[in-house]
Sequence to fold (151 residues):
Amino acid sequence: MKVLLAIDGSAYSEATVKELISRSWPLQTAVRVISVAHPTPLITDPIMVLTAAHVESLKEEQQRASRDVAKVADEIAKKVPGLQVSTQVLEGSPKKMIVEEAERWGADLILVGSHGHGPVERFLLGSVAQSVAVHARCSVEIVRSQRPVST
Fold:
């Protein structure tokens, strides 16, 4: 079995990691921990002032994502030593990249956390979990935190 664990460093991701660790998995289950570096959107800037900020934002996001996947992979390896754990940091839209990586890797299941946005926030921000559930070709489990999480 191949499980794609999508994280973003939030408390919601922590709930998803705890869910994965709490389960019994079939022998030879592989887990790929991914995080998507998604910088602040680049607005067209004729004098290129914002381009430097965009590049810096992307660099910071890549560093954050690398730290997050390494930390989670280490935690999983220590707590569930039978799992084969790998990591991947991607760049782009989380909605798109999670689905593409699941397909490319041949995932059987995607585990993703829900931020629990209300209808207005979902409309304005879009829901990564909802988009992944709609577009993925494999099973998707959306993990919700047991209690409200302050971010």
Notes: The longest strand covers residues 30-37. Residues 117-125 have pLDDT under 50 and may be disordered. The chain has five helices and five strands. Residues 2-143 form a domain with the Rossmann fold fold (CATH 3.40.50.620).
